[in-house]
Amino acid sequence: MGEGEQTGYVLGRGHLSSMRLNVQHYLWKEQLGYLLHPSIPLNRERESGFRIADVGTGTGVWLVDVARQLPTAQCHGFDVDTSKAPGPKWLPPNVSMQTLDAFTDDLPEELVEAYDVVHLGIFVLVVRNNDPGKIVKNLFRMLKPGGYLQWNELDFGHRRVIKADPTAYTPHLTALLQYVQIWEDSLGPKGWIESLPDIFSRYGMEKAKLQRVKMSEAYMKYDNDKSLSAYEEFSYAVLDQRRRGEGEMLRELVARAGEECRRLDLVMSVDMVVAIGRKPG
Length: 281
Fold this sequence. Notes:
Shape: globular
Largest sheet: 7 strands, mixed
Number of strands: 7
Number of helices: 9
Strand content: 15-25%
Helix content: 25-40%
């Protein structure tokens, strides 16, 4: 079993992976039109002690962007590995990073009821057994009474392929998507994504809702390139560790599918969903 399979994270951790995550952030920001959902009230943002947590912060780009928009808020990023984020010297004065496992059974006491807003994004590849309950429980505990949880996610069950010529023959892209589907299925069911509002409610939240957003056609080429990059990362991070030649095979498949996309003007994209919930109080 490769390191990625052991840790639960099956994509890369290098600079190219960081670039993909940063591109993904700006694509989402452009398509959603916001960083924090409009239903989250920010009237207390200028008060002393307004705090935002970003769990699974990755490169920290979402948090740094929020901190720029809300300069009086204290913004804290958490991840099992904060090495992708800027070091303290390069962070805005209202941003800090800290190591934390979202699946922990021992949430530090200083994080309990400490945040007005808790944000989390793209855990689709690490949630197992169709159950994000342990994460939701921890995020709920981190919220102050009256605080809001925002979970941004990719819904692989809603993937689109658009062809400039609907009759185009696309054997390489079809083969790649069949391979990707097998991989995604091996990680377990993804029905929990559509059910996030119900799961939020089960753990005590109110006003839970889900927004679904499709990438606009003008941006789907960029989203397509981002997805192809993720598949290549998976080939290196997991498949190469198995030493069966699968990584090289997938990279060849990605190259052929990418060339096919360029030649035939094809794009693919996955729906974005944003789930919101409020802790009573």
